[in-house]
Amino acid sequence: MATLRERLAIPVLAFGGILMAVMQTVVVPLLPDLPRLTGASAGAVSWMVTATLLAGAVLTPVLGRAGDMYGKRRVLLMALGTMTAGSLMCALTSHIGLLIVARALQGAAAAVVPLSISILRDELPPERTGSAVALMSSTVGIGAALGLPLAALVVQYADWHAMFWATTVLGAVGTALAWWAVRESPVREPGRFDTPGALGLAAGLVCLLLAVSQGGTWGWTSTGILGLFAGCAVILALWWWQQLHTESPLVDLRLAARPRVALPHVAALLTGFAFYGNSLVTAQLVQAPEATGYGLGLSIVATGLCLLPGGVTMLLLSPVSARISAARGPRTTLALGTVVIASGYVLRIADSRDLWAIILGATVCSIGTTLAYSALPTLILRAVPAGQTASANGVNVLMRTIGQAVCSAAVAAVLVHHTSLVAGARVPTLHGYLLAFAMAGTVALVACAAALSIPTDPASRETPRTGRPTGASRDEALEGA
């Protein structure tokens, strides 16, 4: 009979995933007021979001690989501890430089979900893995939906530092619970850590995401942005060559190039784009002034509450997505999820004036996201050896992050080119918002095509505790992938 600690391992890991998503969203309600509160410019304040994005993107595959090599529980605790330290720094200072550094530390939490998924694969019997992985995947949306209204309430009724004191306490509790409830996985991938590969990937990703996130501000044809894109291309090309010629690479590119791994990564990129358009555009649309003729003029708290039903739905439907994957396969679940996301955008295009229709459309998009996000790690788990699950899922989460960053830039570009003058200020038109919905819905359908192109995985037998194919060597497992 399972002990209390074993029974609580899944809820504790899910709590860590929710904390990660909350950390990424809590600063959003503060952004309009932070220039006044910190004495910094709006451009400097925007780095409190950018720093978390960049740090999370860089550290997710690096910490995933470290987890595969040195112990997933150990690296998980390090990520949670670093996140908590970042929250404490934010709570103790109002200096914009220190706040940006602290937010970068919080970005380490992005590795929590892929590490937790890998731990679940190693520790749970196959019949329980699907539902547990689906729950972990859903924590991204659940945390984002909960974090925005809760942070807005704190900002509205208390000193803004109180929000970071609260996340510090939650982070400390999450770290302590993980130390108590999660045991170290015995599955390891021996080798020497690829430090040059980690540095090369970090440099390339920083160039790419900095260019994508700052392109609208600096100008897409500016020397700085073009230089960053060129630098990204050169660095990643050299990194690719280095990975193919090192004995223990950070990312096994030969494995990643196989259709059963590469296509889920492509689908993750596209799904991340399609998913992010829902919350990003909804938040702006419902806060638009009523004078626009379509806006509802809602507060940030009310805006967060509009997204809350989607988060609750993701929590409730994660077991359903696992059942669909068990019955029909994760490829079918992924394809179904992307079609549901596209259907949600059809509803958004049909009616984006009435609050009930907006909430309905946003919730349908969340349902599709639950299905898609729960299927992606399952596809990866079935396609890679047990010793590479954390690093492979880290790359998959990285692709989602890149998709979200590209979506943010694309939506901003669309809305900037479709504005009208309202009360002396330029605001996006309803047509601009509808074009953004159409763009995200189209990307969701492309993600569906990618999902349907994933080869059907061959039948494999796995041992309950390690997830390793019975009687198969690592090379045989790779051939099966």
Secondary-structure map with pairings?
Layout: H1 4-25, H2 34-38, H3 42-70, H4 72-92, H5 96-106, H6 112-123, H7 126-157, H8 160-181, H9 195-218, H10 223-244, H11 253-256, H12 259-287, H13 300-328, H14 330-350, H15 355-383, H16 389-416, E1 419-422, E2 425-428, H17 430-452, H18 474-480
Antiparallel strand pairs: 1-2
Helix pairs in contact: 1-6, 1-7, 1-8, 3-4, 3-5, 3-9, 3-16, 4-5, 4-6, 4-8, 6-7, 6-16, 7-13, 7-15, 9-10, 9-16, 12-13, 12-14, 12-15, 12-16, 12-17, 13-14, 13-15, 14-15, 14-17, 15-16, 16-17
Keywords:
481 residues, mainly alpha, two-stranded antiparallel sheet, 18 helices, disordered C terminus
Outline the structure in words.
The chain is mainly alpha-helical. Helix content is 77%, strand content 2%. The chain contains 18 helices and two strands. It has helices spanning 4-25, 34-38, 42-70, 72-92, 96-106, 112-123, 126-157, 160-181, 195-218, 223-244, 253-256, 259-287, 300-328, 330-350, 355-383, 389-416, 430-452, 474-480; strands spanning 419-422, 425-428. Strands 1-2 form a two-stranded antiparallel ribbon. Helix 4 (72-92) runs antiparallel to helix 6. It is globular, with a radius of gyration of 21 Å. It starts with a helix and ends with a helix. Residues 460-481 have low confidence and may be disordered.
